[in-house]
Amino acid sequence: MPRCVWTNTLIYMVEIYLLFFSFLFACIITLYAVPSLIKLAYKKRLFDDPALEERKIHRYRTPNLGGIAVLTSFAFTACLCIPGNILPYANYIFASGLLIFSVGLKDDLAALNPYKKFLGQTITALIVVYFADIRLTSFYGVFGIYDIHPVVSYPFTSLLIVFIINAFNLIDGINGLLGSVSIIVTLTFGYIFFRMEEYGLAILAFSMAGSVLGFLRYNLGKARIFMGDAGAYTIGFIVSVLAIQFIELNKPSEATALVDSFSRAVPAVAIAVLIIPIFDTLRVIVIRLAQGKSPFMADRNHLHHRLLDTGMNHTQATLVLSAFNILMIGTALSFQFIGTVELLILIGLAALLMNTMLWLYDVRQVIVRSQSLVAEDNNEPYPLRDHAREVAEEALQQYEEKQHQN
Predict the structure, then answer these.
(1) Residue 393 within any structural domain of the chain
(2) Where are the alpha helices (DSSP H) in 310-339?
(3) Among the three residues 200, 224, 259, which one is the final residue of a domain in this structure?
(4) Nearest Cα to 53, choosing from 44, 43, 64, 39?
């Protein structure tokens, strides 16, 4: 076998082992760090108290510092495993990650003004967009648009990053959901980047997946700790970087033979990977606007809330939404050959079908309640009338007896 082939094989094996190491090492660090954070939270009385907000689902005060363990294990592992030459803009990614983590942590410890949160998210996005040049430059023919002018590209990408950050924060409403979806998303992007030989981004994705998996050990079922805004913001930011780079590195002029199958429907595949946070966020915004409410007003119209209303528990709802996410990823990868616009329509129809099923359940519940009320209205007056008749007859009888005695 030629020497160059041996060299390439050796490099390939090293990268595989490095990916597994980054995944397992990040997971172990989180598993070790979370119990200490739980003890610290109880000692310092740092809880998410459900008594402070009626919309809260959990019943007991629960620590919400899980994001500290996730960021620590992710950042340490990624910095340890990623050589500077394979991810030259890593410094901007980690600088932005620390900034958005700080914004979320401040909000976890003391409620932060929404405008300040949005400002912090915007600055985070601008750092990677302007300094690392991580931005979208093509719409792949969606809406008939291909190349995007920089004047549009920079602000659009910044808003997209802010949107994804908040979308991941919004799905953190039941135990295990954010962690499960995050693992699915990061492992998918990690595998794709490995196939693309973008090993720096692959290690970034696997490090995040490992750190979230370690946290999930304490968040599934009866949660002992929550991710908090710090963790949700950090995960959303890293995922937004992975999604944008996935789209950009697969542009037709830059795609390699290994990933040629992704070049025709890259935006649609990216949306399929992020279908749960994207669809859930767009759905609640439309519902709130249709009801004349502010799109930023919290409510119980999220997908996980609707599943809980059907009688599911947190674990069952998490499994259903995670399975749907996996199904959409498989569908996108299987039908990517049909084109970007066509695949987007297919994904949109699948998401609307799930929403329609939830709507039909709500309609059924309304009909059942209406029938129960009608039955109560039909049955209740008769006993009342019978009782009134008995009272009247008894009074009449007493009156007649009294007259007879007189």
Answers:
(1) yes
(2) 314-334
(3) 259
(4) 64
For the chain, the domain total comes to 2
Domain for residue 312, yes or no? Answer: no
* Assigned domain for 157 exists: yes
Whether residue 148 lies inside any domain: the answer is: yes
Query: Torsion angle, CA of 275/280/285/291, rounded to 10 degrees?
Result: 140
CA distance 202 to 204: 5
Number of H helices, E strands in the chain: 14, 0
Q: How many CB atoms lie within 10 A of CB 284?
A: 20
| Helix axis angle, 266-273 to 275-290, nearest 10° | 80
Residue environment code for 44-65, b if the CB has 16+ CB neighbours within 10 A, otherwise e = eebbbeeeeeeeeebeebbbbb
pTM score, whole prediction: 0.85
- Residue carrying the six token digits 């290690």: 203
Please say whether the beta carbons of 219 and 314 come within 8 A: no
pLDDT digits (tens, 9 = 90+) for 51-84: 555 555 556 678 888 899 999 999 999 999 988 7
Structural domain including 374 reads 367-405
| Greatest mean pLDDT range, 46-50, 170-174, 184-188, 341-345 | 184-188
Domain-ending residue, one of 231, 259, 287: 259
Section 40-52 average pLDDT: 72
What does the pLDDT look like over 93-125, one tens digit per residue?
999 999 999 999 998 888 888 889 999 999 999
